[in-house]
C-alpha cells in the first residue's frame, strides 16, 4: 500500500475536530494563545486557571471567534493534587473524553541564588515542575484507559541554557526538569498510545513581559535579549500556536518524548 496516496489529506490530519482539550494557565499569556489555537482547530477546550473571571473572558473570546464551539472555564490550583484530579474529572464529565492536555501554568522570578529564600525555590518547583507531574498523572488516568492522548507541556529554552543577564537558577532548574519529565513520560507511555511532548518558547512578549520591559530593569535587559536572538526580535504568543496544534493533532502521532523549540534562533548561538 502506498501510504502517501492512501493517507488523509495533511490538513485533515491537523484538524482537532471531535477532540477535547484542557489548558492550564489558560487565562492569559501563552496559555490563552494555546487555548485559542486548539479551539480554532476544532477542539472543545477547557480554560483552566486560578483566576476564574479571567478564564471566563477567554471563554467568551473563543465563543465569539468560533461560534458554536464547546468551551468552559474551570478554576484549579495545579499544585493541589485533589484539585487537579477533580479538574480533569470535570473536563471528562463535560466533554465525555480528554484527548489533549496542555500543562502550561507557571510562574517566573528573577532573584540571586545566594539570597534566595528557600520558600521561593520550593514555590518555583511546585508550580513549574511538580504541577506538570500532577496534571500528567491525572490526565493519563483517562488517556491510558482509552489508548490515546496528547500531553503537551510548556517547557522553555531556559531548560537548555542559563539566561543572561537575569538570575533565575530555580526557574531554569524547574524547566530542565519539565524537559526530563516529558522525555521520561513519553517513553514510559509510548506503547500505550499516549504521546508526551513539550514546547520550549524563547523570549516571548506576553502582556506581563511587555509591562516588565517598560520598567527600568526591563529597559536594560530587553535590548540584551534581542541582541542575543538571531531574528532580532521577541516572539509573540501566536508564534507558539502552530506547534501546539501540530503536537495535539494526528499529524504528530509518531512523535513522543520530544521538544519543539520556538526561540527565534536563540539556541543556535
Q: Calculate the terminal CA-CA distance, rounded to whole Å.
A: 44 Å
The Cα radius of gyration reads 18 Å
- The CATH architecture is 3-Layer(aba) Sandwich
The CATH homologous superfamily corresponds to NAD(P)-binding Rossmann-like Domain
| Alpha plus pi helix count | 10
Shape: globular
How would you explain this protein's 3D organization?
The protein is an alpha/beta fold and 269 residues long. It has a single domain (14-204, 236-268), classed as Rossmann fold. Helices cover 47% and strands 14% of the residues. Strands 3-2-1-4-5-6-7 form a seven-stranded parallel sheet, with helices on both faces. Helix 6 (118-146) links the parallel strand 4 (100-103) and strand 5. The model has no long low-confidence stretch (mean pLDDT 97).
Descriptive keywords:
single chain, 269 residues, alpha/beta, Rossmann fold, seven-stranded parallel sheet, 7 strands, 47% helix, 14% strand
TL;DR of this structure?
The chain is α/β, with parallel strands linked by helices and 269 residues long. 47% of the residues lie in helices and 14% in strands. It starts with a helix and ends in a 7-residue tail after the last strand.
